[in-house]
Structures are given as C-alpha cells and as structure tokens.
Queue: 3 jobs
Job 1
Amino acid sequence: MSKTNRQFVLASRPSGYPKESDFDLVELPVSEPNDGQLLVRTIFLSVDPYMRGRMNSSRGSYAPPVEDRQVMTGGVVGEVIKSKNSSFQEGEIVQGNLGWQEYGISTGEELVKVNPDIAPISTALGILGMPGLTAYFGLFDVCQPKAEETVLVSGAAGAVGSIVGQLAKIEGCRAIGITGTDEKINYLLGDLAFDAAFNYKKTRNYRHKLKELVPEGTDVYFDNVGGKITDAVFPNLNLRARIAICGQISQYNLTEPELGPRLFQYFIVKRIRMQGFLVFDFINRYQEGLKQMTKWLHSGKLKYRETIVDGFENAPTAFINMLKGRNIGKQLVKVSDL
C-alpha cells in the first residue's frame, strides 16, 4: 500500500467552465482507521454534473458547497484495505461518497457493498448506481409513461439520458434523443435503438426539428440540459404531458443568466405537469430499483457505455470534458487496479 494519499482540493471557485487551475493536487500521509472505521482504496472515481454546482460559493438547496481547500465531493468504488468495523471485511468492494482522493476513511454508514459477481464494479457508479436510479425513478415515478407515448430526452447520450431512453423502450414508448455529436447520434440510433435523434449543434431551429421528428407531439420530456433546447420543447408538448427536471447542464457554467421566452401559457392550455426531483427522494426504494435494473441488464434489455480516463491526476480533465459533453455514457476516472 502506498504511504501517500493524493487528493484534489478546491483551489478557486470557477467563473464559467472550471479550469484545471481551480483544483490543487495535494499529498498527505494515508490515515489509519480508528475503532469503528475502515480505510478504502479508490479504484474508480465518478465525475458528475452536480459537482459544478458544489463549486459555487452559494449554498445549494440540498447540499452545501465544497469549502475552500476542501476535498472535492464525489462517489467512488473501492476496496476495503483496513477495517476496524465488524460490518466490513478487508478485500470487500464498496461504493460511497469519499471524494476525489486515492484513500478514504469511513465509518461505513454511507457505504454500500458491491458484488463483483453481479456486474463489473464500475457499474455501481453508473447504470447500477446513482445515474441508473435517477433514470429509473425520474422516468417511472415522476413522468409515469404509458405504452405508445413519445418520450423525449435531452442529454440523451449521457449517463442518465442514455438509460432513460432505453427504459422508455422497455415500457413500449417511442424514444427520441437530443445530443451534441454525430457519434452520439449513431450510438443512440444503433446500439440503444432510439426511434429518432438529432444533433442540436447542427440544428438551426430546434422547434422546427422537433415538429419534424415528433409530428404527433411529445408526451414525456426528461430534461437534463435546460436552456434554449427546453424552451423549444414546450410548444410541441401534448395535452397532459409530464416533464421531469433532472438537470440544467447548459446553465451551470454561464457567467450571466440567459434571458428566455416566457412559455408557461402552454402549461395552462395543455395542463402540463413539470416536476424537479433528486434521486435521494427515493432512497428508501433503491433496492427495488437496483433489482429491476440488474434484471434488465442481465437480460440484455439495458446496455451501457463508460468513458474511462486513466490516472487520478487526470480527474480535473475528465470532469471538464464531461461538462463539455465529450463523454458517451458514464464518465469515470480509473484510479487503481482491483
């Protein structure tokens, strides 16, 4: 075991997109666990859009910001290498929010054991983890799709969006995706069997494009991006459409707020329901969701892709690239070998 624990701490709060200089790589001795604690060696580190909001100075609505010089927040999958907690044995694989560091100390309260025989351990940060559960509960509980309805997903090739579209197909719906590269379009239409998709970076008029692809209108909109794309969706929504607000990634790095059209008249005329949600709203039902998602994964009804960057030192680069849409599926950093 290394005697040094490398960590990324918040060096400065970004204006616009984060820069690598907003993070400091520091080295400290590896801590020894006290009674009731365990030491976890990180194998995979997750980088996710929500982390951008945690870098701001204002307090978030559900979680505090990362403090200056504090270890960046983040989920990991790792191996228990020392344990003074009877509930965890050395050699077990666990998942938890231990932050951007190579070694983490935990009391075990936030850790979940990962069974490597069920699926590759990286999936505990993706399709069988927070993104998968976000897609599952966001679609089925918030949006409540019905067979033969049309489900539109923005950020459709990302960790959450790519799963939402597949779940919609399982439910017997038509899945339409919005994404940002032709490679991602091919992934959605080929590997994931979406019914249609378009590249917003090559589309001049989003509203006209949606009318072309979905002339019958949209029944469910799963929103990961917000902004001008979402503005264009509202006029094409059907009577009693449902919207899940999962993310607003197009807004996270703005230095000035965007001015948008006021389109809420559509909510009156069409009796639209829009709801924001967090996956933590469903924490008491995680096992239900994971059981079903695992079943679909093993049967081949669900597929996933991971974009993996090797080397802990490359975590800031992986994070920035993810915010700029350069990943397909779940963005991970491989920190060490199993």
Job 2
Amino acid sequence: MKVKCPTCEKDVEWNSEALNRPFCSDRCKLIDLGQWAAEEHAIPGKSAEEELMSEQLKDIDSGLLH
C-alpha cells in the first residue's frame, strides 16, 4: 500500500521496511515535529489550560450550590 508523505506529499510504501512511515524521510519527520513544536499544528478542541479553568469553575459552582 502507498500513502502520501504528510510533509512533501511524495508516495511512501507502507510496510515494515519504511522506518519513517508515514513520512518519506527523517527530514520530513523532523520538519513535521518542528511544526508541532512551533504550534503550527494543533488538535481541535479546548487547550489544556481552558479545560483546567472549566473544571475549576465547575468545582467553585458546585461548592456554592451545596
């Protein structure tokens, strides 16, 4: 099976010999890692900080109601 490298879109053979899969090379893998580190990529949803604040507000609200 072939997939596209997420960085350069080159075809990559998906097998046990392709050590960098789904990337075509170590270079493309490191470029992608750098983009995550620079926050150029993100998983949709609330940030961890927003989640924590939301939980703290729930705790405060539940404390006021009881």
Job 3
Amino acid sequence: MDQLRNHIEEITPVSDEEFAYIKTFFTKKKIKKHQYLIQSGDKVQCEYWIIKGTLRAFYINKDGKEHILQFAIKNWWISDYNAYFNQTESTINIVCMEDAEILCLTLYAREKLASELHKMEHFFRMKLTLLYSSQQKRIISLLSDNPKERYEKFASYYPNILQKIPKKYIAEYLGVCRETLSRLYLNN
C-alpha cells in the first residue's frame, strides 16, 4: 500500500491517519494473463489502479475489428469510465496482458472518500484532468499526425511500455499495420 500512498502524494500529501482511512476503500485483486477485468456488456462496478502488470482496454466495432483505447501499467488507472460513472453496461473490454495485481475502487467508495476528504476529491479531479488531456492529445494525433509522428510521440510519452507490449498491439493502438510499425521501429 506504500505504492498507493506515494501515488496519491504525487498530487497531495496525506497524514498516516488519512492514509489508513483511504486504504480501507480499496480492495486488492490478482488477475492472470489473458483474464478479462471487464467485458463488453458487463456492469462496471469499479475503477482499477495497477500495482503491477499490464492491461489493455479495447473496443470491438460491429465488423469485429479491435480498436485499442488504452494500455495501463504500474501506477496507472483504468476502467470503462463511461460505464463506471453512469453505472451502465460496458462498451469496452479490459484484458490482462501479464499477471497483475490491482486495487479496485467502487464508485460509491470513490464518492464517499472524495466527499469526506477534500484532498482525495482534489486527487481524483487531477487524475481525471490528466486522463482527459491525454485522450484529447491522442485523438488530435490520430487525426493530424502521420504514422512516424504518432510512433515517435508514443515512444517519447511511454518509453516503458515499448518493451512490455507486443508490437501488434502497439501498431493497433497507433492505427497502423504491423509492417509499418516494424519499419518505424527499426528506423529508430
């Protein structure tokens, strides 16, 4: 749990007493490689913070094509946020790419924690702001950058991910074919 405290304190300091209370809202869970955390159609109960492991969030369109929305590694958050905040069925899937440990936080627990500790409300607001900003950058990159620029941005933003994720998934995330990624990867 020290890892979670360090993560929170990147944004706001917490006392020992506050952290003792904060950690009561989280449930620890282990998931195996290839296990789904969320499947399309599931009711989404939690958002998840990764202690260790790598997860992939993706959407499957009506033609059966997979579109990767997000990767998540140690110290990152992941969920189907539309379903989580609106308490509806998921439209995305989240699968474990390697054995992982996560902390689960229900919406009720999140809201209670945020209402009782202003520091945590601030923390969650800052995390959502960063998520929104990151998603907006990605959309703009997909709309305006060529494959080489998208790859270079991905590599500079997330250097730790390049070695953890198979190239086929990185290609999917960038919206390029595997062969194009191989050419870009070899030229860097």
